[in-house]
């Protein structure tokens, strides 16, 4: 469940290709969609209980993901969660572009 890209990766393996990891943008988009669907299912309730662990899956293996998990654990609503995720991925993208310039 923590790797919605598994089917694409399986196809790549079947073709004899290397497995590609999802981009930062792809991860954030999936997190946003997951939060959107979760929020719709709340029927007016605001509790993000149950979604935190799912969102944390999408940061597995990324630099600084422990900080994201800690920040998400303190969120009390879905709007704050998406903001925390957007900030985390924006910072990673900035760090990656700095490393690429070197």
Folded structure, characterized:
- The longest helix has 24 residues.
- With 102 residues, the chain is mainly α.
- Helices cover 65% and strands 0% of the residues.
- It starts with 5 loop residues before the first helix and ends with a helix.
- Helix 2 packs antiparallel against helix 5 and helix 4 runs antiparallel to helix 5.
Strand and helix layout:
Blueprint: H1 6-14, H2 24-41, H3 52-57, H4 65-73, H5 78-101
Helix pairs in contact: 2-5, 4-5
Structural class: mainly alpha
Total number of strands: 0
Mean pLDDT, all residues: 86
> CA-to-CA gap between the ends?
36 Å
The helix count comes to: 5
Q: What is the helix content?
A: 55-70%
Overall tally of structural domains: 1
Assembly context of the chains: single chain
Q: Report the C-alpha radius of gyration, rounded.
A: 15 Å
**Major sheet:** none
- What is the H-and-E element order? HHHHH
* Contiguous uncertain segments of 5+ residues: none
Tell me the strand percentage band.
under 5%
General shape = globular
